[in-house]
Amino acid sequence: MIAFQNVAYGYGGAELLSDVSLRLAPGSFHFLTGPSGSGKSTFLKLCYAELLPTQGEVMLFDRDVRSLSRDDVALTRRRLGVVHQDCQFLDHLPIAANVALPMAVAGYPDQPQDLSDLLAWVGLGQHANVLPPSLSGGERQRAALARAVITAPDVILADEPTGNVDWEMSLRLLTLLVELNKMGKTILVATHDMNLIRSAKAQVATRVLRIRDRRIQLAGADL
Amino acid sequence: MKIAQFTDILKGDAQADSVVPSTGHSAWLTLFTAGAMTFLAVFALALSLASGRLANRWSDALANTATIRIAASGDQMEAQTLRVLDILKATPGVASSRALTDDEQKALLAPWFGPDLPLDQLPIPRLIELTEADPGYDAEGLRQRLVAEAPGASLDDHTRWRKPLAEAAQKLRLLGIVSIVLILGAMAAMITLAASAALEANAQIIKVLRLVGARDTYIARAFVRRFTLRALIGAAIGAAAAMTGIALLPSADAAGGFLTGLGFQGAGWILPLLLPPLAALIAFAATRRAAFSKLRTLT
């Protein structure tokens, strides 16, 4: 699915990630941890080709990201569901249209039948016609997660998806990710929340990656 | 750029259109620019067409006539006039000829000397007007014959008047065409700027669309269609206003000359109707180019 080979990335000459080699196998569930500013978001951006490595090779679905055209990048992203830390939406469209946006850009003109079920599942059943600026931080994160999974993508990349939600909602979102993983989807979640990781480990086989000294290692019991 | 792409743009896709907010100053800017520029283009077109008609009219009118001026003393004037008229009757290519009457000569001189000119007391040359047949006469041969048989007569075939007038009218027509090209070019530039500003203002939306897998074509289409339709509507309003203004101008007559002949005539009224689709086509190309150029700078 996603493979890094001796990848490095730096901003303005300073290297943030160095010599990263790993492979996210189909159907795997990974957590990515590390201190703030360690490069978790950068790593995720490399995974969906928003950034290109300054060194090494990133393969997405067996294709080198450097060889992808702009259209190829767009088509590749349709196989990825991304939840951003800052959860950006089209603020002039209601939540239902925002959540269904990946379907629309992929050429499905009508909103999917189970959209209301999905919104209800993430606790936004009553907010389908609400504009994004009216939502709280937690609601925005839930909407972003719903948008990321609506096309049942092969891989889901989530950057702190439970950062602004309460524990109960965190568990619900985790359950959704676990269910998707059981369906064969590959999951990568960047998080600080160790309780979330422990809960996940109780439900599904996960691996925890830690960014340390610009490198990515298996963490804790996974070492 | 294919015609099918252009027609697809006009047919539209409501869902794709909705991803870009419809408000913003670029909407009014495009509408106003297209309207104002098309308004000016219609007038430039009318000027160009009127200049063309004027050039043809002047050329035709002056090309078919010539004047013979006879300068002779009082007792010789009548004899020379008759002699010249005889020569003209015998000259191939001259359809008709006649001497201007005293009243006609007075009318010609009235603007400079007033209506009460004592023509019989002044050494005013006699003028003979000749009308050319098709094919015309040999001007140089006629000139030599006049020198030999009527020494006081000289031929003015209007060349020295006709040429600068026709050239001026042709240049005016060219100026009109250049004006239309410049106006349309300025419209393309302004719409490009408006489209670039709109894309810049919606960078956040573009980022979200790219994140969820939208291709550049999908994103560009939403902007291109909006700008194309705005340009079409603005240009239609501008063209309608200008055509109404031109239709309300006084009708052409001989006294009014160029200014009252500024309107369109006959099939000429179809030409300004072509400007709104042309404006839409220009907006389509300009916005498409601006959109893809801008999108290439975004990840």
- The helicity of chain B comes to 55-70%
- How far apart are the termini of chain A? 22 Å
Largest interface: A-B, 27 and 22 residues
Query: Kindly state the mean pLDDT of chain A as a whole number?
Result: 89
Strand content of chain A: 25-35%
The strand order across the widest sheet of chain B is 2-3-1-4
Rg of chain B is: 31 Å
* Integer-rounded radius of gyration of chain A: 17 Å
Assembly status: heterodimer
Question: How would you name the CATH homologous superfamily of chain A?
Answer: P-loop containing nucleotide triphosphate hydrolases
Structural features, described:
The complex is a heterodimer of chains A (223) and B (299). In chain A, the strands form 2 sheets. In chain A, strands 6-7-8-3-9-10 form a 6-stranded mixed β-sheet, sandwiched between helices. A 4-stranded antiparallel β-sheet of chain A has the order 2-1-4-5, covered by helices on one side. In chain A, 42% of the residues are buried. Chain A is an alpha/beta fold. Chain A contains 8 helices and 10 strands. In chain A, β9 (207-212) and β10 form a beta hairpin. Chain A has a single domain, classed as P-loop containing nucleotide triphosphate hydrolases (Rossmann fold). With 299 residues, chain B is an alpha+beta fold. Chain B has 2 domains: 3-52 and 163-295, no CATH class; 72-151, no CATH class. Chain B is 67% helix and 8% strand. Chain B has 11 helices and 4 strands; from the N terminus they run αααβαβαβαβααααα. Chain B has helices at residues 3-11, 14-17, 25-63, 74-89, 102-113, 139-149, 159-201, 203-211, 216-247, 270-273, 275-295, and strands at residues 65-70, 94-99, 126-132, 153-156. Chain B has a 4-stranded antiparallel β-sheet. In chain B, α3 packs across α9, α7 (159-201) packs across α11 and α9 runs antiparallel to α11 (275-295). Chains A and B meet through α2 and α4 of A and α8 and α9 of B.
